[in-house]
Amino acid sequence: MNIGWTSVARHYLQVVAFCFVVAVVTHLIWPSKGYFVQVGYALSVGTITWLVIEFGRHLVDEKHCHHAGDGGHGWPKGWRGLLLTALGIACGFMLGDPLGDLLFSFDTVSTPRDNRLSLAITVIAGGIATFYFHARGKAANMLAKIRAAERDASEAKLKLLETQLEPHMLFNTLANLRALITLDPPRAVTMLDRLNNYLRVTLAGSRALSHPLSAEFDRLGDYLELMAVRLGPRLRYTLDLPAPLRDVQVPPLLLQPLVENAIRHGIEPQVQGGEITVRARRDGARLTLDVCDTGAGIDPDSRPSEGGGFGLQQVKERLATVHGDEGVLRLTRLHDGGCCASISFPVAS
Questions:
Q1: Burial class (CB in 10 A: 0-12, 13-18, 19+), 312
Q2: How far is Cα 11 from Cα 132, in angstroms, rounded to an integer?
Q3: Is the separation of the CB atoms in 235 and 273 below 8 Å?
Q4: Would you say residue 161 lies in a domain?
Q5: How many angstroms separate the CA atoms of 70 and 141, rounded?
Q6: Which residues are CB-neighbours of 199 under 8 A, at least 6 positions away?
Q7: 118 and 265 inside one domain
Q8: Same domain (yes/no): 131, 188
Q9: CA torsion angle for 283, 289, 290, 291 (degrees, to 10)?
Q10: Do residues 109 and 192 share a domain?
Q11: Torsion angle defined by CA atoms of residues 165, 166, 172 and 178, in that order, rounded to the nearest 10 degrees
């Protein structure tokens, strides 16, 4: 019997609060006993009723229970739930009043009218409390389903974006390889071998929705080595990943579109090439990832070309899917030439 004691304690505190309300009603009917004595009686009846129902539901097989939104044991379905409620109310009525008499040295209620009132109050209060907990459980279950559906939708969108992004990178690489075959066949063969190794590692990797930042940097290193075969000494790069940030989880292929843009718009247009620096840093509760180049630069206010626009849009959509408005992508022109693309989003402490 798997019991969540935190949930049990929270339920009982709610029962205690409900008993104080019931005591107001009973004090109006039997004012001679005083309000706090009525609280004691209400707690006696309420505690016994709650004990029978709360722990009794854990004896019902979970396949006959509603799904609990908090992952605990749900409420019994159909007649099992009604029977358990009736049993709890009966035990509370038959044992709670005598317990109150024993604790407060009062004679038991003997008139038929008082017996009927006491029974009615117990049934009504027990029914209301049971309905309250049952309704809360159903609401929590519905909320859990909604959140699960939203999470599944976000995961599906992330996977769709990733499947769109990987062919985009491959097509760009194949186009570069085709041009290199004509100009420098030996280097084209070397580049093809690099591409083969890169794809083997990428496809063999898990299709998880996130991976450590260290894996993202390793992937970038493989991709930059692949591009270095074609560009030679024109492409220089630095990967700066502090050790404390290696295990931070990020979506796969988050930075690669930015590196592709840096090569296409920054390094390739210049005869002398340039350097790409990929850096991770923590700014308080946020992680910032910079992809900077010393190339030709790009106007952040201008409309990007088709290829660049696709990559940047992919990054923006993936950030929005995971982090909402908290995920930010900025493009900044550097004063000494080049461009810096920065991604920022919140991370756990």
A1: middle
A2: 11
A3: yes
A4: no
A5: 7
A6: 170
A7: no
A8: no
A9: 180
A10: no
A11: -160
Any residues with CB less than 8 A from the CB of 37 and at least 6 apart, and which?
A: 104, 106
Closest CA to 264 of 161, 168, 166: 168
pLDDT along the chain (349 residues), means of 10: 75 88 86 84 90 85 70 74 87 86 65 76 83 76 73 61 57 76 83 76 62 89 84 92 93 86 88 93 93 78 52 82 88 87 89
**Contact at 8 Å (CB) between 195 and 226?**
yes
Token code pair at residue 179? 């041009």
281 part of a folded domain: yes
In 121-252, beta strands by DSSP E: 211-212, 235-240, 249-250
* CATH code of the domain covering residue 332: 3.30.565.10
Say if pTM beats, i.e. exceeds, 0.85: no
Sorted by sequence, the CB contacts under 8 Å of residue 236 that are 6+ apart come out as: 273, 274, 275, 276
CB atoms under 10 Å from CB of 98, counted, come to: 12
Calculate the CA 56 to chain-centre distance.
33
Shared domain check, 324 and 238: yes
DSSP 3: -
Question: What residue type is 185 in one-letter code?
Answer: P
Domain encompassing residue 57: 5-148
Count of domains forming the chain: 2
Residue from 181, 185, 159, 137 nearest 253 by CA: 159
* The domain boundary residue, chosen from 103, 128, 148: 148
Phi, psi (deg, nearest 5) at residue 305? -70, 170
Q: Report, in angstroms and rounded to the nearest whole number, the Rg of the chain calculated over CA atoms.
A: 33
Q: H or E stretch including 265?
A: none
Please give the Cα distance from 160 to 219 (Å, whole number). 20
Kindly report the CA angle at 52 between 46 and 54, in degrees rounded to 5?
90
Task: List CB contacts of 335: < 8 A, sequence separation 6 or more.
Answer: none
